[in-house]
Design a protein that fits this description.
The complex is a heterodimer. In chain A, the strands form two sheets. Chain A has an eight-stranded mixed beta sheet with strand order 6-7-8-3-9-10-12-11, with helices on both faces. The longest helix of chain A is centred in the middle third of the chain and has 18 residues, at 180-197. By secondary structure, chain A is an alpha/beta fold. Chain A has a single domain (4-236), classed as 3-Layer(aba) Sandwich (Rossmann fold), CATH 3.40.50. Chain A is 26% helix and 21% strand. Chain B is an alpha/beta fold. Chain B has a single domain (5-90, 172-325), classed as Rossmann fold. Chain B has helices at residues 47-55, 80-89, 98-101, 108-119, 124-137, 143-147, 156-168, 186-203, 214-220, 238-243, 248-256, 295-299, 319-325, and strands spanning 5-16, 19-31, 36-40, 62-70, 73-74, 91-94, 174-178, 206-211, 223-228, 231-237, 305-306, 312-313. In chain B, a hairpin with a 2-residue loop joins strand 1 and strand 2. The longest helix of chain B is centred in the middle third of the chain and has 18 residues, at 186-203. Chain B is globular and about 65 Å long. The chains are: A alpha/beta, B alpha/beta. At the A-B interface, helix 5, helix 6 and helix 8 of A face helix 7, helix 8, helix 9, helix 10 and helix 11 of B.
């Protein structure tokens, strides 16, 4: 059993005219303790909806979310059950997720007060400890958010999540609002926290390149469905799904060689009117007839990989012959 | 070849109660027709302010000095009326965020033909025809229908293409693109980069590309200038500056980036935070974050020195620079 299990999650929103907009259409994902799982995809692919469903911030219309073996409740008017506090969320923009009018130490202490795990007299020491844990000096506690840089603010947001002694943190684009040179600092902090505190992390990002350095496993999402999951190194070395390949090819290289990245033709379709068959087929270079009508399912492959693509239809290779060649590209 | 635009010793400062606050300090570069000039730096390094100074769009209170010569005329000192004619016709700008830089309540037609009618005095009909031609050029599907659309009906990538079309409307010779792909997904970004590249080649357009994304610069720019805290630290041909970077800041920035060819494992971050204008360190502004810092770095601002391989850099510690100084 994994720490966090998402099973066949469906999230459907409604437009003002009543049209249903399915943002997530049956996505499943597991995150273990101490593991960082990256979830990547373009804007509008449903990755943030899936993240919010994972912490109970949006109601799912299907599927189940279990955390430490128990169902996660959708957040309503009542306080969350105490055990769900160990499932935390960090938002994208540290300029908006922190109260500008209160000292940051007090905001970290809030999480301690809500947790009621220790006496108030310990708060000060504990806050200082948390700040140091995220690489900030203890004196930072008496600063206001406007005195902090973007990177420092995101560290505060992470410290606040850590105050609840989480087993699992869901991070929604935690790096994209940060400066290039600061991104790496926060990325390394996440890796260290997962390793040292054995916290599981689900890292949502549109930036495949940074996820590569941080995540143990990566899931690629396209228009509401997960099309491929694999150990990160494997995913980069040999992407199986044509969409993953397209994402990797479109990243420009900072090597001064002047190679233009490969553009993926077309636009991500309206989730209210998804294409039939494989949702990626109108933009796919390898499109075949069956892709237009039959929906490929996520199938397990060798090496802990999963892919939903008719190019990789054959079942687990190891069960038949070890030498069956993999689709090369 | 004579450059299209020559910027020399550009300075931008704010007059405050405590004296002038320097934002951009002595920036010089050339931009040639048909070439992409890349200006790199993190937020707060002064790259956007540099562009705004060229267009005469500096925020109130900011003042500038130096020169920016386009065809023997100085963009910085030209009278307002002349500057109005220059903007759009000679130099156009594309902004970072296509969501907030297009007017949400006006049709694409209105926003695209405004320039044509005001700057070139075209009639309604002529302007519409030209607008359709422009939208075709930036590969907007079904341009006739698109003209009647509103910005919210288009995706981020399409809006950025429309902005580029607006920029190109009066056939400027220089297009300034400020972080044109930062708000976009990588797959869409690749398309915009290819579009800019094609325009440069086909129309002999000069592009000034401002971005913090060194991958984007590597892909598109012919020459690159890297700024830190309002000053140029390294500049030269892209292959040199990006491929064989020498300045400690450029190197550190490249090492901290999660680019595809880097090895796995931990990234190498730059310690500390970028310096803002009000807390700029003495001497080389990068010295508090630099691994190679020496006393001379703290004492005086290192001058930009041209070294043997065609690049210019400001670092007294670098052996190539040191040998020049002797």
């Amino acid at each position: 059993m994994s720490l966090l299990e998402l099973r066949d999650i469906e999230v459907v929103y409604q437009r003002s005219d009543g049209t249903p907009v399915p943002a997530v259409v049956g996505a499943s994902l597991d995150v273990d303790a101490g593991e960082i799982v990256g979830l990547v995809g373009e804007t509008g692919c449903g990755k943030s909806s899936l993240a919010r469903a994972a912490v109970g911030l949006v109601a799912t219309t299907g599927g189940s979310v279990t955390f430490e073996g128990q169902q996660v409740h959708v957040l309503g008017r009542r306080a969350r059950p105490a055990r769900e506090r160990r499932l935390q969320l960090v938002f994208q923009n540290p300029y908006e997720s922190i109260n500008p009018r209160r000292m940051v130490g007090a905001q970290v202490a809030d999480a301690l007060a809500i947790g009621r795990t220790e006496p108030r007299s310990n708060f000060r020491a504990r806050v200082e400890q948390l700040l140091q844990r995220v690489g900030l000096p203890a004196s930072m506690a008496r600063r206001f958010p406007h005195q902090l840089s973007g990177g420092q603010r995101q560290r505060i947001a992470i410290a606040r999540a850590l105050a609840a002694d989480p087993a699992m943190i869901v991070l929604d684009e935690p790096l994209s609002a940060l400066d290039a040179s600061v991104q790496a600092q926060v990325a390394n902090l996440l890796v260290a926290l997962a390793r040292d505190l054995h916290v599981g992390m689900l890292l949502i990002s549109h930036d495949l390149a940074i996820v590569r350095h941080v995540a143990h496993r990566t899931a690629v999402m396209y228009l509401g469905v997960i099309v491929e999951t694999a150990p990160t190194a494997e995913l980069w070395k040999a992407p199986m799904h044509p969409y993953t390949q397209a994402l990797i090819d479109s990243i420009p290289h900072a090597d001064g060689a002047g190679h233009l990245p490969v553009a993926l033709p077309g636009e991500i379709p309206d989730p209210a009117m998804p294409p039939p068959g494989c949702r990626f087929h109108p933009r796919c270079r390898h499109v075949m007839d069956r892709c237009r009508s039959e929906v490929p399912q996520l199938v397990a492959k060798d090496g802990g990989r999963e892919v939903a693509c008719w190019l990789h239809e054959e079942p687990l290779v190891s069960q038949q012959s070890a030498d069956v060649p993999r689709m090369s590209r | 070849m004579k450059p299209l635009l020559s910027v020399r010793d550009l300075r931008v400062w704010l007059d405050t109660a405590r004296g002038p606050l320097s934002i951009v300090d002595g920036v010089s570069f050339d931009i040639s027709a048909g070439q992409v000039f890349g200006l790199a730096g993190e937020s707060g390094s002064g790259k956007t302010i540099t562009a705004l100074a060229l267009l005469g769009l500096l925020p109130a209170g900011a003042r500038c000095g130096g020169s920016a010569i386009l065809d023997e005329r100085d963009l910085l000192t030209m009278p307002t009326a002349q500057r109005r004619r220059t903007r759009g016709r000679e130099v156009a700008m594309v902004f970072q965020d296509p969501v907030s830089s297009l007017h949400p309540m006006l049709t694409i037609e209105r926003q695209l033909t405004e320039h044509l009618r005001y700057q070139l005095g075209m009639s309604h009909k002529e302007a519409d025809e030209r607008a359709i031609q422009l939208l075709t050029e930036v590969r907007i599907p079904n341009p006739k229908a698109a003209l009647r659309g509103y910005p919210h009906q288009f995706s981020g990538g399409m809006r950025q293409r429309i902005q580029i079309a607006i920029g190109l409307a009066c056939e400027p010779r220089l297009l300034i693109a400020d972080e044109p792909t930062t708000a976009l997904d990588v797959t869409v970004q690749a398309g915009i980069l290819r579009l800019l590249h094609r325009l440069c080649e086909e129309k002999d357009l000069a592009v000034m590309l401002i971005t913090h994304d060194l991958g984007v610069l590597s892909a598109l720019a012919d020459t690159v200038t890297v700024m830190y805290a309002g000053r140029v630290v390294e500049s030269g041909p892209t292959a040199q500056v990006m491929g064989r970077s020498r300045h400690p800041y450029t190197r550190a920035l490249i090492d901290s980036l999660p680019h595809p060819e880097a090895s796995y494992g931990a990234l190498v971050p730059i310690a500390g935070d970028p310096a803002g204008p009000e807390s700029r360190p003495s001497g080389c502004a990068f010295h508090p974050r630099c691994r190679y810092v020496e006393p001379s770095c703290v004492a005086a601002v290192p001058p930009l020195v041209r070294v043997d391989d065609g690049r210019e850099m400001a670092c007294p510690v670098d052996p190539l620079v040191a040998s020049r100084a002797r």
